[in-house]
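Reviewers of the previous submission asked for a worked example of the structure-prediction workflow described in the proposal, so we include one complete record here. The input consisted solely of the amino acid sequence. No template or homolog information was supplied to the procedure at any stage.
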Amino acid sequence: MPEDAGQVSPTPPMPVELQALNSAFATLTLDARGRVLRANNHFVRAWGYEPGELEGRDFLDISPGDGLAASPSDIWDSVLRGEQRVVERMRLHKDGARRWVQAFYTALADADGVVRQVVEISSDISSRVLKAADDRGQIQAINVSQAVVEFALDGTVLDANARFLEAMGYELAEVVGRHHRMFVDAAHAASAEYAAFWVALAGGNHHAAEYRRLGKDGREVWLQATYNPIFDPTGRVRKVVKYATDITQEKLRQADFQSQIEAINKSQGVITFATDGTILDANPNFLATLGYGLDEVVGRHHRMLMEPGVAGTESYAQFWQTLRAGMFVSGRHKRIGKDGRELWLQASYNPVYDLNGQLTRIIKFASDVTSDVALAQAFEDAQRQAQHDAATSLPNRTRLSAFMAAALTHPQARLVVLYLDLDRFKPINDTYGHPVGDKVLGEIADRLRRSLKSDQLAARIGGDEFVIAAPNLADEEIDAYCQHLLEAIAEPIRNDVGLLEVGVSIGVAVSPADGTTPDELLRSADTALYRSKHNGRGTYCFFANEMNDRVTASRRMIEEMRRGIAAGEFYLDFQPRFDARTQSIRSAEALVRWAHPQRGRIGPDDFIPLAEKSGLILPLGDWVLQTACEAAVQWPEIGVSVNVSPVQFRDGRLVQRVREVLAGAGLAPERLEIEITEGVLMDDAEGAGIVLRELKAMGVKLAIDDFGTGYASLSSLRSFPFDVIKIDRQFIADIELRDGSRDVVKAILALGKALGLSVTAEGVETDGQLQTLIEDHCAEVQGFLLGRPMPAPRLVEMVEDDVESAR
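From that input alone, the workflow returned the following structure tokens.
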């Protein structure tokens, strides 16, 4: 590195942005000769050194020239010329371990323009480098084990490895620059199918199959190959890479299979079909099983062997489509013999190809298992009768107990048991008799079956009593499930005697709190059922009182919220956001409130979670968006910010709803800001990106709320089209008390500046917090110090006062 010369000037100051990054990232300060002047705490901790241990050492001691970067001297010379450089290079830990970093270099010049110091800000990228090396290793392994050839999009050969050349009998110079058609016969090369093959590859479509190709000496070469479009960073196809395995010998061995087929022909029923299902041939074993002569089946369609009506179904058509697509089908099938009797065949349908890869016919191998099926059905019927209720076909108490025991093998296993007793069933039974009563029970059983998830079980345990056992059903799901059962069973039942109506009462027990064995849980659920019937029937109760109280309170709040939305009990306050220096209002955030007629004012923390759980957040969120935009139209030219719940974001109607509300209110899109939390990005990053980009294209501003507390990172800020970062209030609350909080705030401000994003500090409540934020160049603040949430008219007065003061 060059020697520093001339008169020493004062140490140049570090810019504010670098100071903020220095507080949050590993940083080295070097002199013009590459010697270490300072290493910050992040750096020495990350690389195993003690404070001050690196000072005076040559930079190349810890970052030798080998690695990912260009020549160290070339990099250094360009930095001393005033260029900012970002490079990837190797770094040595104090214990000698090698790792890789991405380093940003910027020079600091004195008043005379002479570079006196160089600042390096670095981050560890070892995992990414190692993954890239692993990817290269995998590609090399494929290149060693398979034939590989590269083509331009028009089919011109660009390169080929030794395995490919060996398989085809060519030298590299004989294939490079020539077209792929040199490996196929002339008729195929001139076909529309071949032209479409290359058009599809150029369009990014992958192809994989067995292909017949021609070697240099004209011999046939069979390749099991994949043609893989390779995309550039912009998503355009730039070339096609083919990976192939020579399977010529395997194809030749297929001839040996014919002898095996002959052996099968002697022991099983064999029938051959054309690809349209026409019978071409059948062996004596098959004909004897079905009772036909050969002349009675050849030339007729496979449907002659099916039950009446089956051949016209969609499933039968799909059966043949599957075979014509070259897929193997096997299973146990019911067929009809010549005399009309039902036969069960254990059969396989096997597509057969010629050496050109064309499907020519389908061969079926079958064995008569009719007697085995009859025996199995008899056994299953006996088992079913022992464990199922005859009237409803639901599992009985024996089967329920076995299911519950299996679900309770662990002492802390969670099993929810719902004990159901029908209301108003006895009068139906007494009035219309047992046949009508049995039909009612059968209909109720069907409704219970339709309500079950795959891991749940419903059983009839006697009379008009049923039990549902639901493993791992969460607390918040029980309420909705019970409500669904109450509504489903209350639906009128159509019968010959007219419409019949029954209801249900439900008792709920949950393991392990209410019992750890099937008997204990059933007793607890039965006790809860008694309470439910005592409370008036047509409802449900928990065995545990605290669960009853909690569910009852939540249910009451949800119903009151539903009524309150319809009755107009909700209203908006607006909290202004201020320019940190001038303290003029820039925009306002809409905050929903509930004026409950009995409980008074209810804050969003008490009702928003329930609104999201119940789905009421959708109508409530629509109302907030529309009301906020209609209010903002009446203001002077300031914006309005609206928080959007993750539930609204996932609903699929958000973009259209925003478009409709803006048009209806007459509000310019750039005056609306949509705020989302970091969790939305983690739920479905791809879907979130689509919605955010659609909103951005509309002209709406986008803000990420509570930044720093969740999952958002530099990569997410760069991947999504945000305009604003809102720093979470917990960092602002500690900004005067804890250096760590201020460092985080500085780093977020620096990131915002680097990415061209506006940054808003939330929760500013003291003069000291405000002054600190101004010193750290935060442009916008929000909090009780300058403005609490207020009605829209008060906000308009404040904005008008700002305008008047500015004059």
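The first helix runs from residue 16 to 24. We consider this example representative of the routine output the project will generate in years two and three.
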